[in-house]
Write a structure and sequence with these properties.
- The protein has a 7-stranded mixed β-sheet with strand order 9-8-7-6-10-11-12, with helices on both faces. The protein has a 5-stranded mixed β-sheet with strand order 1-2-4-3-5, with helices on both faces.
- The protein has 3 domains: 50 residues; 132 residues, 3-Layer(aba) Sandwich (Rossmann fold); 163 residues, 3-Layer(aba) Sandwich (Rossmann fold).
- Helix 15 packs across helix 16.
- It is 48% helix and 15% strand.
- By secondary structure, the protein is of the alpha/beta class.
- Bound molecules: NADPH dihydro-nicotinamide-adenine-dinucleotide phosphate and 2-oxoglutaric acid.
- The site of NADPH dihydro-nicotinamide-adenine-dinucleotide phosphate has 25 residues, from helix 9.
- Keywords: NAD, Nucleotide-binding, Oxidoreductase.
């Protein structure tokens, strides 16, 4: 970053929020990408565009007391970061994970502004969560916690104000409990949450949307260089919602998915993973990915990170969490033949890892663009709820394909316009920033 205005803004942020490392990382990545736009628009400095875009409209943080199965009172901290509502109601998931803190919430909400803009749908950017660990908790404990979380959160959300959904640790079970509690306390508005169970007003295809959308984005990356998924070896990390449905769609389209993982370790199956077994372990029984090797004698299990192992493959899809790939691991991917990286997770590649991808001319699809299918179908769920309509699986999937194709085109066109040689990460940031900056100017000083 050499532009003086940008440097001043970033330096101030990094002094004020020196402990918010993930937030600063997300902002720095973004500022580096949009530098040519700022160079073209010196008037943005007087309008304080960057100062305003990096400051959340508000951050809500709250106590979440609940009672565990032993009758002991536990206390967690909940958050909702309502970052930017220029495009519509704040929109973004809720994460339950022990690592949740203000920095992680702010980075996720910040990225959500631009991701949501890329979908072309009327949604602003937000994110929320709590430092609660659902792992190992009974259904009753998860329900107690989730009800207490919603008792506070419901004061700040609404179908036209802020519409949360799921993220790490928050799936259909948690959304169901949240929606139940919301309805106990408020009017019965299905549009207040997305990712709801279908009978409660959920959309067909939302559960699958992030993973499927990721593969639709990947297909566009492949088509652009006259390649296809047929026969390609695909490494996927994680084994949750995004990883599972990315694997399912990749296999349907001829890819060979050779790995999955969780926070304990990774499985590798040279000839491809059997997803029915994974479904039984992970979705039906909430088990650990290690159990897979009991069912497939050809598969191996490694403790620790998937990315520490030499696996020959063509495509890497990180679908677990932020900063899961560091610089050394990125170099290992390059050395093992990976040509395409598309991110199902949010910011899974450390800044230095992305540098390695770019230096080695990999085709790299950033999370902000590649994983936008989830929030896009959430916005379609909002549309269905407000129209009191239900679309079929086929209708939703068709719309998702069109949206992902368009997001890829926006990233490609912006990369071409600034002569950036297939830099889809910079392209996605530039395209969405140009649109948000215009909107900021139209709305006056707010
Ligand atoms: N759900 C959605 O619609 C969307 C999700 N995303 C992003 O995709 C990613 C995955 O989310 P999702 O699949 O919904 O979440 P899930 O909770 O369903 O699954 C998360 C997976 O990632 C693993 N994981 C989590 N934290 C770590 C860690 N610190 N190290 C290694 N593995 C880890 C989990 O393993 P374990 O069980 O051991 O914790 C689990 O396998 C996140 O980055 C999320 O923000 C992005 C867009 C939309
Ligand atoms: O569907 C949504 O609103 C949330 C999706 C999400 O959290 C994300 O895109 O990271």
């Amino acid at each position: 970053m050499v532009n003086n205005y940008m440097t001043r803004v970033y330096d101030k942020l990094s002094k004020t929020f020196e402990h918010e490392t993930e937030f600063l990382q997300a902002v720095k990545n973004f500022l580096d990408a949009i530098e040519p736009v700022i160079e073209k628009h010196p008037e943005y400095e007087d309008l304080a565009i960057l100062e305003r875009i990096t400051e959340p409209e508000r951050i809500i943080s709250f106590r979440v007391p609940w009672v565990d199965d032993q009758g002991k009172v536990q206390v967690n901290r909940g958050y909702r970061v309502q970052f930017n509502s220029l495009n519509g109601p704040y929109k973004g998931g809720i994460r339950f994970h022990p690592s949740v803190n203000q920095s992680i919430m702010k980075f996720l909400a910040f990225e959500q502004i631009f991701k949501n803009d890329l979908t072309g749908l009327p949604i602003g950017g937000g994110k929320g969560g709590a430092d609660f660990d659902p792992k190992g908790k009974s259904d009753n404990e998860v329900m107690n916690f989730t009800q207490s979380f919603m008792t506070e959160l419901q004061k700040y959300i609404g179908a036209d104000e802020d519409v949360p959904a799921g993220d790490i640790g928050v799936g259909a079970r948690e959304i169901g409990y949240m929606f139940g509690q919301y309805k106990r306390l408020n009017a019965k508005t299905p549009g207040v949450l997305t990712g709801k169970p279908i009978p409660a007003g959920g959309s067909q295809g939302r559960t699958e949307a992030t993973g499927y959308g990721l593969i639709y984005f990947l297909l566009e990356m492949l088509i652009e260089v006259n390649e296809s998924l047929e026969g390609k070896r695909v490494m996927i990390s994680g084994s949750g919602n995004v990883a599972y449905f990315a694997a399912k769609k990749a296999m349907e389209l001829g890819g060979v998915v050779v790995s999955l993982s969780d926070s304990d370790g990774a499985i590798y199956a040279q000839n491809g993973i059997d997803l029915d077994t994974v479904k039984q372990i992970k979705i039906d029984n909430r088990g650990r990915i290690k159990e897979y090797i009991d069912a497939d004698s050809d598969a191996e299990y490694f403790e620790g990170s998937l990315w520490d192992h030499d696996i020959k493959a063509d495509i890497a899809l990180p679908c677990a969490t932020q900063n899961e790939i560091n610089e050394e691991q990125a170099q290992r991917l390059v050395d093992n033949g990976i040509k395409f990286v598309a991110e199902g997770a949010n910011m899974p590649s450390h800044t230095n890892a992305v540098k390695v991808f770019k230096e080695n001319k990999l085709y790299y699809g950033p999370g902000k663009a590649a994983n936008a299918g989830g929030v896009a179908v959430s916005a379609l769920e909002m549309s269905q709820n407000s129209q009191r309509l239900r679309w079929t699986t086929e209708e939703v999937d068709e719309k998702l394909k069109v949206i992902m194709k368009d997001i890829f085109k926006q990233a490609l066109d912006a990369s071409n316009a600034y002569d950036l040689d297939h830099d889809y990460a910079a392209g996605a940031d530039i395209a969405s920033f140009e649109s948000i900056a215009k909107l900021m100017i139209m709305n006056g000083v707010v």
